[in-house]
């Protein structure tokens, strides 16, 4: 623990430093590659695996089952619909629950499925809960989420521009947020994780985390680069890089503290309780926190430096620092 504290102190004082900003082209290339994969991979898989709430259909939940053999549910649905080509999605919920999802069925077919599931799993018909989900509900949720995202982005852009008194920090932060959203969504699409309303809530939640981490680093950058033209020891880019190093340990600690409870919720929700909502939210948060931490360090701050590196004030100050260094004896 002491060595890690010394490591953080060395980063803060500049005794030890990682050149995050100096290697920004490498990070930009990596991020561009990740974004490209995040866009192409879901397309190659045929799109996102949308949950029942988005595509519409029928759902049957069975509680208190004597067995969790999913093949029984598949056989029941195929017999009730008289079609072996129909393959329902069957999920084990908790230790003695089953969830069956199919395309929308008629009331007669629904009754046959309920009766068949009750017989197959040794429960009363009252233990089988049928429901029908209209796809328009999921579309409504998506539209509201997109509107909320647009409003959020606009407010963030205006708020950061006013707080930091520069639109370039605001733009860098927005690009980092979009970067996080695209890659997180791409992981869902590439791996086939089901996209549910809970997952959408998780997507929107990670925006707050990513923005918080970015604002903290940007605040340190603003402090380090205030009156930078009067400084003859470090260039503007070097002072931005110093700020990233000074907040590096804090970013790592914050991410670990955030990941531990999220990972616990994911484990409990997915493996112990079989709670789909907990699993979906925590999975989106887990991926988003990891991507958000990466973007704060490797995307947002280097991007801000890139936006300002060709400004006359920045160029003149860098030339002055380099001339002083060259004039100093070796």
Descriptive overview:
The chain has 330 residues and is an alpha+beta fold. The chain contains 12 helices and 6 strands. The chain has helices at residues 2-13, 24-44, 52-55, 70-81, 107-120, 135-164, 167-191, 197-225, 236-246, 248-272, 276-308, 312-327, and strands spanning 49-50, 57-63, 89-93, 97-102, 128-133, 194-195. A 4-stranded antiparallel sheet has the order 3-4-2-5. Strands 1-6 form a two-stranded parallel ribbon. β3 and β4 (97-102) form a beta hairpin. α1 (2-13) packs antiparallel against α9 (236-246), α7 (167-191) runs antiparallel to α11 and α8 (197-225) packs across α9. It is elongated. The model has no long low-confidence stretch (mean pLDDT 84).
Can you describe this structure in just a few lines?
The protein is an alpha+beta fold and 330 residues long. 70% of the residues lie in helices and 8% in strands. It is elongated.
- Classify the helix fraction into a percent range: over 70%
* Amount of beta strand: 5-15%
> How many DSSP-defined strands?
6
Radius of gyration: 26 Å
Mean pLDDT: 84
Q: How far apart are the termini?
A: 37 Å
Label the overall shape.
elongated
Strands side by side in the biggest sheet: 3-4-2-5
The SSE string, one letter per element, is: HHEHEHEEHEHHEHHHHH
Could you describe the largest sheet, including whether it forms a barrel?
Answer: 4 strands, antiparallel
Regions with pLDDT < 50 over 5+ consecutive residues? none
With helices defined by DSSP (H or I, 4 residues minimum), what is the helix count? 12
Structure classification = alpha+beta
